[in-house]
């Protein structure tokens, strides 16, 4: 189970690093053209903040376990990512972007899976 969690965590981290780097570097128009339509009509500063937050959250998925420092940050990062998938799915649903809604729902459940099993396997008491 630990190996499966590491694989899933790495994939999710790469997804959010990719998204975060794009939001940190590119304009709103380029992001929307590339399919990241959730940032449409947002101020550039907020888009950059979201991008940096995604990058830091992705690091939170893998670095605590690798470095053996504050491993509780991994399930916290995963839970926070699952929480932001809810409004993301709502935004995409209102725009009738059902492919993105499915992606958000999938990421929601995968992040909950990571959070639950990292807590379960580590015997954290929250």
Helix content: over 70%
The figure for the number of domains is 1
Strand content: under 5%
Q: Please give the alpha-carbon distance between the first and last residues.
A: 21 Å
What integer value in Å does the Rg equal? 15 Å
Structural class: mainly alpha
Molecular shape = globular
Q: Biggest sheet, in brief?
A: none
Number of strands: 0
Total of helices: 5
User: In sequence order, what are the helices and strands, one letter per element?
Assistant: HHHHH
| Chain-averaged pLDDT | 93
- Taking pLDDT < 50 over at least 5 consecutive residues as the criterion, the unreliable ranges are none
Can you describe this structure?
This protein is mainly α and 126 residues long. It has one domain. Helix content is 80%, strand content 0%. The protein has five helices and no strands. Helix 3 (44-67) packs antiparallel against helix 4 (73-94). The model has no long low-confidence stretch (mean pLDDT 93).
What's the structural blueprint in terms of helices and strands?
Blueprint: H1 2-25, H2 28-33, H3 44-67, H4 73-94, H5 98-122
